[in-house]
Amino acid sequence: MMNKEKEGSLLLGLIALLAVVVIVALVGVLALRPEKTLIQGEAEAAEYRVSGKVPGRIEMYLYEEGEKVKKGDTLVIIYSPEVEAKKAQALAAREMAEAVNQKAKNGARNEQIQGAYELYQKAKAGEEIYRKSYERVQRLYEKGVVSTQKRDETEAQYKAAEATVKAARSQYQMALSGAREEDKAAAEAQVARVDGILKEVAAAEAERYLLSPCDGEVCERFPKVGELVGQGSPVMSVVDLDDVWFTFAVREDMLNHFMVGSMIQVRIPALGNVIYPLQVTHVKAMGTYATWRSTKQNGGYDVRTFDVKCRPTMTIPNLRPGMSALMVEN
Predict the structure, then answer these.
(1) Span 43-75, pLDDT tens digits
(2) CA-CA distance, 303 to 311, in Å (whole number)?
(3) Residues 6 or more apart in contact with residue 266 via CB below 8 angstroms
């Protein structure tokens, strides 16, 4: 009886030992089995920074963060006193240039023409008197009645009268013909120059109204109303939710799943357990600082990280930039 009890106890011990060995073996196998690599990416979208060409202060925001906008919508109005001052100066210069140009086109007034004509007639009358006086003195000089000096003085007066007539005639003809072609061209060029300044001012004034570059959503507003912004400073950002993609940081020993043009499947935890197909569109090496790990200690090579860009082949409702995407193996 005692032998049977000893044999039963020994058998139970052996069974228990065998069970422990099996459990330890299973635990060892599970512990030594390499973990499944989880490839995680992130959703991104095209983001546009809205900025202006003229400095000024934020006068008004027309959209809040999170609101939908259309391409061409006015987002921000900037108040710029420098643009207003330059516009006033340009308008005043335009009026002056136009007045000068109109004067050159119209020529002299009727009163000026009449005055030049009367001076011309007066000069002709004076010339006639000096001509007759010179002819009388010349006849008396030929008879020896007057001296040579008297004859020369009379001749000089007559020639001066002739010159006066010529000058008066030129003034009268100038009044009739108006301004010279060169003066007219100069006046027109001045008007054109001022018109160019006005166009420049109009372009600067249009830059006070910042427009949306795309259909999208207001992502962020930077300065507050009343704050000063410089030329080219970003004022607002708009994200285009129709232009989205995913980026993955992938070790090069796993790139065989990410060839350009190949398809992968991902799950987006924020959107549930739905599987979405993506197509690989771009692969590039990241900087050396992005190296994941070195395998040279094992006789291998440095494993670098590549930036992989994928685009969805279908519309993903409610997808937002920043959402995580987990690769699902086929």
Answers:
(1) 999 999 998 888 888 889 999 998 999 999 999
(2) 25
(3) 41, 246, 275, 276, 278, 325, 326, 327, 328
